[in-house]
Amino acid sequence: EENRLALVGGMLLDGYDAPPLHHAAVLVEGNRIIEVGPAAELEIPPEYTIVDTTGRTMMPGLIDLHAHLLILGHGNYTRWSSWIEEEGGDAARSRVMAISAKQLLMAGVTSAVDLGAPLEVSLDIRDRIERGEIPGPRMSMSGPWITRARGGMTEQFGGISITTSAEAAREAERLIDAGVDVIKAHSRLTLDDYKAIVKAAHDRNVRVHAHVYAELDVRNALDAGVDVLTHAGSAGTAPPYSPDLITEIVNAGRPVVVTAAHRSWIYPDTIAFPERLQDPQLQFDLPPEIYREVQDSLSNWRALRYFGRTDREVFFRERGLKQFIESGAVMGMGTDSGTPMNFHTEALWREAKAHVDMGMSTQRVISALTRVGATILGQRTELGTIEPGKLADIIVVQGDPHYDITALAHVETVVKDGRVVKESKPTR
Predict the structure, then answer these.
(1) What's the rounded Cα separation, in Å, for the pair 12 and 26?
(2) How far is residue 209's CA from residue 227's CA, in Å, rounded to a whole number?
(3) Region of residue 310 (phi > 0: left; psi between -120 and 50: alpha; otherwise: beta)
(4) How are beta strands 56-60 and 11-12 bridged, if at all?
(5) In this prediction, what percent of the chain has a pLDDT beyond 70?
(6) From edge to edge, which strands make up the β-sheet containing 138-141?
(7) Average pLDDT in the chain
(8) Percentage of the chain modeled with pLDDT above 90
(9) Does the predicted model carry a pTM greater than 0.90?
């Protein structure tokens, strides 16, 4: 029978830059929102299942524009990669990606972009989620990224090494034919490479996310028409960009997804509170052998190669993030979740907190996590706000994220596609 749901009683943040609606109700039929208004004024038919959100905040599901289901916070890519092979290769990858997807969904992420994993397993996980076989966000998959780099991470994440721009275009076309949702252009590409990839993708109506840090790479990606600049300004891996470049990014309305927290915040945060690495939720989510492997990889986490540039990153981190916040750039939120110590269970609230701490208003952060994220995904008409006609992706959090953005760490209820996939208290 058709799904009928009413979320009733809580404060509603609808995803627009508008004051909240207090004591609100949201009515859902099938997988669509059909009515929104004050609970006292909406008539709720008796056949509706009621989710009591009294004393809580309702808001659109969160959108993570940069995740990696293939990894779970393990400290060393090389070791993780060989461990996966020992555990069964693609079967193990599939198992890990399913765990990651569920962790994201339970943390309130109802849509996510996976930017780098082998092709077949990526599409398989996406499709199994879509068919309702396993829990997870609506996934947009890039599959393998395109790069001129060789070895190392390229191999571990199934990336594609190219040597010419024509080859880059061909690989982009091949990936799109195979069914990827987005293309990821990784590092060491030339301006002509970006142009070739963008043309191939845009001819097929597919967006391109570029993994860029250095000013020249950001400039090339911008000039080539890449749709999303991901990592740009992140973690202080590059000094602040020139004012001209920032102005051009802002004027072009080109979205930036900084992924700020995953190195330069997470490291000092873990120095301050190493107990977070043994969060019982991780032990609950991960099979014992995976939990042991992840914990073992983090036993001497301060010495991990991944954090080798931390002093420099922490030195530049404020300027790196503030340059975009203060310039008024279009900003989405992505976490690079799955990278060392960067667990899918907490990635977005941590990212949101870094942005707020650097001066972004909570209102703008909430929009970045929802409405703006949906626009960057190309899903503006379907996702990102709570209003009649939109898909019913709704989360309920404890507390008021406007008062304290870390309320996003306390996601009690998740509705995805009109169905309750996580609940803290029984519905009636």
Answers:
(1) 9
(2) 6
(3) alpha
(4) parallel
(5) 98
(6) 62-67, 109-114, 138-141
(7) 96
(8) 94
(9) yes
Copy the structure tokens of residue 262.
Answer: 């995953």
Neighbour tally for 399: CB within 10 Å: 16
- State the Cα–Cα distance between residues 284 and 102, nearest whole angstrom: 12
CA distance 168 to 194: 8
Residue with tokens 């990224």: 145
CA atoms within 13 A on the CB side of 236: 19
- What are the beta bridge partners of residue 257? 230
**Residues in the chain, overall count:** 428
pLDDT at 236: 59
Q: Quick one: three-class SS letters along 360-393?
A: CCHHHHHHHHCHHHHHHHCCCCCCCCCCCCCECC
| Residue 106: predicted pLDDT | 98
What pLDDT is recorded for position 427? 60
What contacts 24+ positions apart, CB below 8 Å, involve 79-85? Answer: 79/297, 80/156, 80/293, 80/297, 81/155, 81/156, 83/293
Q: Which amino acid is at 34?
A: I
Give yes or no for a contact between 391 and 138, defined as CB atoms under 8 angstroms apart: no
Largest CA distance in the chain: 64
Dihedral sign (CA 83, 86, 89, 95): negative
Contact yes or no for 391/60 (Cβ under 8 A):
no
- Non-local CB neighbours of 46 within 8 Å, separated by 6+ positions: none
Helix (H, G, I), strand (E, B) or coil at 25: strand
Distance CA 31, CA 39 (A): 20
The amino acid present at 213, given as its one-letter code, is Y
What confidence category does residue 235 fall into, taking pLDDT thresholds of 50, 70 and 90?
Answer: low
Torsion sign (Cα): 356, 279, 264, 252: negative
Q: Which two tokens stand for residue 137?
A: 């966000």
Q: Are 84 and 38 in contact (CB under 8 A)?
A: no
Digit-coded pLDDT (tens) for 60-75: 999 999 999 999 999 9
235: left (phi over 0), alpha (psi -120 to 50) or beta: left
How far is 189 from 204, CA to CA, in rounded Å?
Answer: 21
- Res. 272: pLDDT tops 70: yes
Question: For residue 101, which of 119, 66, 126 has the smallest C-alpha distance?
Answer: 126
Q: Are 388 and 33 in contact (CB under 8 A)?
A: yes
pLDDT at residue 426, as a whole number = 60
Query: Is residue 237's pLDDT more than 90?
Result: no
